[in-house]
Amino acid sequence: MSEASPDEDGNFPFEPSGGGVCGGLESREAAARFGQVNAYYHVSLMSQRVNGVLRSLGVGPLPKVRAIVNARRPKQRPGSSVDTSRWVPVKGAKYRYPARLENLDDFSIPLCGELLFGPGHGVTAEGWLPRISGGAYLCDPSHDAGMIYQAFGLHVVRHTADVQADRLRAPRAAFSRPGALEYAVSTYLAASMLSSPHVGCWHARHDAEFVPADSLANDARIDDDEMQPQEALVAQAVAGAMWDLHKAFLRHEFAFVG
């Protein structure tokens, strides 16, 4: 976990203090170390659950994935080559599959995917994290369990469903970017891990009077006459439908037990 180290009791204590928004360099470094531990915890938890299901189906476990906190990427303008001399922060949380011919000599494990968590951007006073810390909180993707689960969910879909049949592509061909179905399934998996349809609940308001736009509790629909609906709408509608089935199965299970 890079520079994150436990104390003498083997614990990783962290004083929220706004997630690094309050205080100087020491506070920001502590927030970054917490992001490493937090990402490791949630990725490991979800991986264990998914691998348990795969094991019950007689399928091998998910391949390794690497998580990077405060990630940067080379700057690139549309139509131009990558400028490796300039690096810019990654926005939010991303799942990246390495190019087939990429040099992986620097990695100690076979790399089958990367989770990139950009630095904190913006401050929120809504959601679970501000409630826990007692005040405004920096929107750091690596502190947000929902964003971690969504990003890792793309890794799960890539190596199980392989929706776009990348395994059949030519060895030198680039991998497909995630589409609406991949995003829908990964969002549903995140909601399942959170036991809540509000996947942005750590950094956003969600209550009986307000349902966030990205919540699976929204009644997102695609009209029959809509020839080319936006990808984000398709992903949300499909994820919402999966969440509705999730709730229906739970009600049926409880009714059966009763």
Please summarize what this structure is.
By secondary structure, the chain is α+β, with helices and mostly antiparallel strands.
Descriptive key words:
two-stranded antiparallel ribbon, globular, alpha+beta, 258 residues
Q: What general outline do the C-alpha atoms trace?
A: globular
Span of the ends, CA to CA: 45 Å
User: What portion of residues is helical?
Assistant: 25-40%
The mean pLDDT is 79
* Helix and strand element order: HEEEEEEHEHHH
Number of strands: 7
Question: How many domains make up the coordinates?
Answer: 1
**Biggest pleated sheet:** 3 strands, mixed
Structural class: alpha+beta
Report what the structure shows.
With 258 residues, the protein is α+β, with helices and mostly antiparallel strands. The chain has one domain. It has five helices and seven strands. α3 (145-160) crosses α4 (180-194) and α4 (180-194) runs parallel beside α5 (231-257). The model is unreliable at 100-110 (pLDDT under 50).
Topology:
Layout: H1 25-56, E1 66-69, E2 72-75, E3 83-89, E4 93-96, E5 114-117, E6 123-124, H2 128-133, E7 137-138, H3 145-160, H4 180-194, H5 231-257
Parallel strand pairs: 1-5
Antiparallel strand pairs: 2-3, 4-5, 6-7
Helix pairs in contact: 1-3, 3-4, 4-5
